[in-house]
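Exercise 7.
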Amino acid sequence: MFLNVSYWEWAGYIIGTVLVVLVSLPNGMLKRFEKYFSSDHLHQKLSSMEIKQGTLYCHEQGEVRERTLQKEEIAQVINWFNEAKFIDKVSYLKDQPSIKLSLEREGEWITIQPFQGEVLIQWKSSTQESIPYWVLQSDLKHWLMNQ
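Solution. The predicted structure, written as tokens, is:
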């Protein structure tokens, strides 16, 4: 006995304290893993000043029609892009779209196209692997479908 407390009781206090410390410490590590594996970082906001050029590609009956967007159109597309709600990553793409919008930024290309009734976005860069993801934005979808 030590300080009128049995050794078994002390052992219980020590084991309990160690368990609390072990269970509590990983919370910071779990937050790091959650941030690393989370998909929320995929859909970043854009500024129309960052975009150098916007090109709309329409595939019709084997022909590709290409149109360069005006500054006002780019600003509207960026506004819709920033309002879009992230849904999920897409693991594979089934078919080529008939309409595709490409925005060029410093060393990156952002491809926007209709996908399963919503919008698919894909960031392409020479330094990073491209990860396509699906967003919800009805105005952007309707604008793409009416081009």
